[in-house]
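Q: Structure tokens for this one, please.
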Amino acid sequence: MRTLFKRAIVGLTLALALVAAQSPAVAAEKKSFRIAWSIYAGWMPWGYASDSGIMKKWADKYGISVEIVQINDYVESINQYTAGAFDGCVMTNMDALTIPAAGGVDSTALISGDYSDGNDGVVLKGGKSLKDIKGQNVNLVELSVSHYLLARALDTVGMSERDVRVVNTADADIVSAFVSPDVTATVTWNPQLSEVRKAEGAAMVFDSSKVPGEIIDLMVVNTDTLKQNPNLGKALVGAWYETLALMKDGGPKGTEALTAMATASGTDLEGYKSQLATTKMFYTPAEAVAFATSPELVKGMDLVRTFSFDHGLLGEGARTVDAVGIAFPGGTVLGDAGNVKLRFDAETMKMAAEGKL
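A: Here is the predicted structure, written as tokens:
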């Protein structure tokens, strides 16, 4: 989950896919839409919304059909979205910037669902503080949000990536790698994080709760498709908040929904609740609107885009950190206002908050 490597979509196939996906004439005729999602605590509501019929109910309300498709490979889901195979996809803010947006696909963060509030962490074996990481090899998924978290962590103690050696490790191999005697430091996310913390001598010395609002989980939709088909946005937002309301229901319906999400994510109810405890979910649209319109979002995205540029993730042609424009509610733009490719939207969530969907 939440892994970032290179933008792997190139050549004529992508060009043709993008023309088809972004053509207003084609978009205006659409009645059927496909949304990709992958397993992660904050995205499990999408699977439940599909399985329970909540998504269909909201799609029917607006005279459209919305297929919610689970993709086991997170990066592949974003690549397919970027190529036009899906109209929307769940992804982190950093991945939204560095894959579709940097690849030229104008994308809108329709729903700000949550941010990591301890779901990502730096773990040392035999160390007691973050400063003990100096000089060590650090196993993580290179160029992912784990890499970003490491950079932010090091900065808090006056260090940089020059003080460690990053060892690229697949997310599926993180747990097995950490239990080997040669690996002494790692950065990862849940559920792997909870497993590596069980290793003998393991101590979590930094986590994402110390950089709140910087690792954000989003529902991203193709901007042109959304403009030509605003009912898609309304149906997605409506289904999302109905599902989240169930999650907060203390009765049997809420327990049923959470249990289903837990099972689908490969854990039990208590295990899923523990993951939610380190996920700052915006359970109401009003909470999400407040976050999406806050100065903190702009500050966080400025940090993310700087890291992305410094690591060559804004594309080969990006000569400055301003190469890709990022637009926020209220008119603020980071970067090139003439090349805005990532947009944070609050209007549809605001409609939900006001009961206007």
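A few notes: The mean pLDDT is 92. The longest strand covers residues 107-116.
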